[in-house]
């Protein structure tokens, strides 16, 4: 499980690998003599896959599941293949696909299955969708029920809008993009090619900009700074469910090519995220902060505003970043948890650390 | 306030309690001689309830509001009833409903009111809803305006879909469930009986799975791992507004029976949450983590991926859990706040703790 | 950029300032002799604005961009104007608008542009919207496609509902409000005048209330406490994308006048937020907590339940507030981050702080 294709449409393992995009990967088959290539209906973990499924071993922690697997074929590294061979006469019952990068080969095979089960293309607009007369809809675009595409919006060829998406006036979706149900783009948002946008994400809401203005009701009142910038999203970007990306105040909020954003992330106005940076769920990035390329930001981290993080910076989950980081590396700031009573004892001392340092100095002077 | 029923439809206190499901609860009435049973139109706090309302005292911090309450009746514990009796001649003006568990009895009475004001049932599909011809709609299901129910989806008997819900292809909602406006289920999601799903929640978005793949645009680029698993939600589960539960990579993300999830929670792919565990708002649970039964997770906590928490584990709000927990108990990891200047002084020492320990050791050696 | 008006509709700088609401602000123009008032098509930063755009200098960190700006006019403080004058013969190429509060004057001008580009008003209900016959729709209200307005709801004059908003039964929107796409109000929610509500926000979902009730499935099971209160939002409130505000248990959750809430904030049941308080993104506020007036709550902070914060309290981002605060001031509780190895060394000592204090005491006694 999951079985992805019925037996009649399942390719043989050889045909499957021939159909898979293996750019940059080398692989070979290894099997007991006389073993024929199994038909592959789907993919599974080592513990759950059956004879018509392909599995993979990428994480050593699962190696002990290899001898008992029922999978018809398994992608393994050359090291694992060698170890299997060294075990001698008792060749494993599954065919091995040997590759230096089993996880990536698995990903490529999985991508083939994803395409194989995608519904047939062909231009389509559900009759309940409301599409402005001057919207520009590319070839073979599919627009689901209850969608709204406002004036002047452009949807690139082969893109799919799931149910109930809203594309604001003049906004742009590149070709080959997939918007799941209930994606919202305000006006003035541009998304590149091959985007994957998940349900509930909101691109282009106003940045949080207010100036103190007593004329708006008295002491402490706020006057709104209208947000005239847009959101500019590059190619090959994935944005998770209920993530929000605010429009810029005067210039755009910018998400670079190949950036991957998980669910429930908040990207404030005028943030810039460099190419290939990946951000895990529940992260908040405050206004005007710039993040470099190839960074990873762990879940539930928060970044203060107006910061600059260089390329190849890796932030551990749950860390608050409050100053610039120019040097590549891993940065962490998680308060360690403990049993509640122990935490109470230690936390009490936190409040006295300045005093403790002073007492230590006094002792050292004696 | 709130008044829930008009006077003509309000039951007497006796009738109300007779109609209430009191399974597992014992209770008795206590009133001044000759006092008749008041009609109960609604429920209120001790400070706000009027003569036609029932109140309750469950939290001792509100006991001082008891003498002044205008409520027609109050649910109290035997201890409170005894204290009231001991005050002698001046019997309180309200009828007492005496029960060892006032809060639970209140909950049951409130549930009766909730049912009483629910609109009449009866099968109904709003004409603006888009329901696939082969969707299986149970008896007396109500489907609100602008909903989308895709091919092969199944909605159990007596369930209600509020406005603008999207039920993906082949997904399943059990009987007697309530989906508020704008709930989104992707394809391949199963929800059990008696679910309550709140607006903006998203079940079944892709898990955040990517493999490094330079062929996708160069150094640092990511290749997508398609997410073929589903989401499996048990019976009696409530899921809060804008909470997201991702689908599994190959197997399902699993939410056990009776689990309660508050708003804006993120449950990543392949997480498993045991029965009756309650999770407060803004919690993030990273991929493949397993949480036991009867746990409580405080608000804004975060759990790293691939962890195992046993049964009856209680996490304080704001705590980052980064390792397995097998022993029941309460765990905390909140950095204590202080006035800003004091925080600055103490936080500066945090960065020197290793050094401070060393200096202490040096002194001890002398 | 952004150019907001075409040349034919762009006012001269004099006309623009005359049309701008400058209540409470004084300003004057200063320019090289003979310089005519430029036409202003839009607004820009110092680094991006062109000759037909107005810019501003509010933050000293951008002062070095002033000499090189291409802007046709710049709002500056009297100090900056004096410094420019002191530079002598080489008068700057741009017209200066001199004002003690450049940022606020900029805000007011930007508000003028925001109004100028707003589409013409006039009553309008898109034919795909579903509006209950007994809903009360004020004068010149505009209701977008796919909206749902339930029975008895009221929409105040001049308000705009973007696409796919859901207004629950009996809920109220005040006049001159703007709801962007996909705003959800449950039944029983009241919002005041001049509200700005962003996509995906949810007002009125059930508070997270459960009582232990073994009758619901065994040990550890929960019984639901129905939530009968509402949500009451004052005038001039802005609520960000995907923010959730739960309804009260018996009384209302209350958001005061002029409160500004950023994206992805969670406000639990029975919270009360005082006038003009501003809350940054990703904050969680637990149930029954009261926040005073004119507070600011930094991003990703969390507030425990049943607390009281007084007026003029300022919480730094990422801080967990776990006790009452009565004194105005700034409060912080962020664990400082470090390079990962350094963090590991220091975090290890955190777990021994109680012991370290004891050892220090022992040494001091000697």
CATH superfamily of the largest domain in chain A: Hexapeptide repeat proteins
Mean pLDDT, all residues of chain A: 94
Question: So how many helices of chain A?
Answer: 5
Assembly context of the chains: homotrimer
Supply Rg of chain A. 26 Å
Structural class of chain A: alpha/beta
CATH class of the largest domain in chain A: Mainly Beta
What is the CATH T-level topology of the largest domain in chain A? UDP N-Acetylglucosamine Acyltransferase, domain 1
How large is the share of residues in beta strands of chain A?
25-35%
Domain count of chain A: 2
CATH architecture annotation of the largest domain in chain A? 3 Solenoid
Biggest sheet character of chain A: 11 strands, parallel
Low-confidence stretches of chain A: none
Q: Distance between the terminal alpha carbons of chain A, to the nearest Å?
A: 71 Å
For the largest interface, the chains and their residue counts are: A-B, 80 and 75 residues
Number of strands of chain A: 38
DSSP helix fraction of chain A: 10-25%
CA-based shape of chain A: flat
- What is the spatial order of strands in the main beta sheet of chain A? 6-9-12-15-18-23-26-29-32-35-37
Organism (chains A, B, C): Achromobacter aloeverae
Keywords (chains A, B, C): Acyltransferase, Lipid A biosynthesis, Lipid biosynthesis, Lipid metabolism, Repeat, Transferase
Protein name (chains A, B, C): UDP-3-O-acylglucosamine N-acyltransferase
Family (chains A, B, C): Belongs to the transferase hexapeptide repeat family. LpxD subfamily.
